[in-house]
Write a structure and sequence with these properties.
The complex is a heterodimer of chains A (about 110) and B (about 110).
Chain A: E1 4-7, E2 10-13, E3 19-25, E4 31-38, E5 42-51, E6 54-57, E7 65-70, E8 73-78, E9 87-94, E10 102-104, E11 108-112
Parallel strand pairs in A: 2-11
Antiparallel strand pairs in A: 1-3, 3-8, 4-5, 4-9, 5-6, 7-8, 9-10, 9-11
Chain B: E1 3-7, E2 10-14, E3 19-26, E4 33-38, E5 45-50, E6 56-59, E7 62-66, E8 70-75, E9 84-94, E10 97-102, E11 106-111
The chains are: A mainly beta (about 110), B mainly beta (about 110).
């Protein structure tokens, strides 16, 4: 079984709808991240969490919110989706020690019409 | 401003044709540089971490090197299965902790 899972894998929605993307991990890592990937822009950090009570904004948090329900679960919500939020979304985890590699989920392809 | 730049944006090689990918960075006090491989429709997969200038790491046909300004990913005698996007990333300090900045990647295509 994969260490980092994301649901759904694909989603098509309409402008104004609320969407939740979910991430679960079995690696036992405290640190979790949400990124979006757009062609030509690379991976950009939306939110990150270093434990259940610690949530921080990344460089592009506007229009997004997150919830860390447990050490293993980190959800990303789009309260009112808009077309420019169409992208590939990745969840990642890392070991709590500094400067360790990240482990990524398989991604969610989100299309907002 | 902390920045990570990768070049070339795309690279096409014949099978067996060796080449190098570049990752240049401008960060104050490098704390590590990470290389990832990303296949289409999948999440990035960790390849290497380099922590100090002069360090080198190898894995099969891949060799990563690091200087004070840039890192190279050398691909020796590539095979079609090496086709992927290669990403580099560096951690930067922020608000008493750190986060990662990623380059935009190099899309490698190896032709049989």
């Amino acid at each position: 079984d994969a260490d980092v899972t994301q649901t759904p894998r694909n989603r098509i929605t309409k402008t104004g709808k609320r969407i939740m993307l979910e991430c679960s991990q079995t690696k036992g890592h405290d640190r979790m991240y949400w990124y979006r990937q757009d062609p030509g822009l690379g991976l950009r950090l939306i939110y990150y969490s270093f434990d259940v009570k610690d949530i921080n904004k990344g460089e592009i948090s506007d229009g997004y919110s997150v919830s860390r329900q447990a050490q293993a679960k980190f959800s990303l919500s789009l309260e009112s989706a808009i077309p420019n939020q169409t992208a590939l979304y990745f969840c990642a985890t890392s070991d709590p020690d500094y400067y360790n590699e990240q482990f990524f989920g398989p991604g969610t392809r989100l299309t907002v019409l | 401003e902390d920045q990570v730049t990768q070049s070339p944006e795309a690279l096409r090689l014949q099978e067996g044709e060796s080449s190098s990918l570049n990752c240049s960075y401008t960060v104050s006090g490098l704390r590590g540089l990470f290389w990832y491989r990303q296949d289409p429709g999948k999440g990035p997969e960790f390849l290497f971490t380099l922590y100090s200038a002069g360090e080198e790491k190898e894995k099969e046909r891949l060799k990563a090197t690091l200087t004070k300004k840039e890192s190279f990913l050398h691909i020796t005698a590539p095979k079609p299965e090496d086709s992927a996007t290669y990403l580099c990333a560096v951690p930067i300090p922020t608000s008493g902790t750190y986060k990662y900045i990623f380059g935009t990647g190099t899309r490698l295509k190896v032709l049989a």
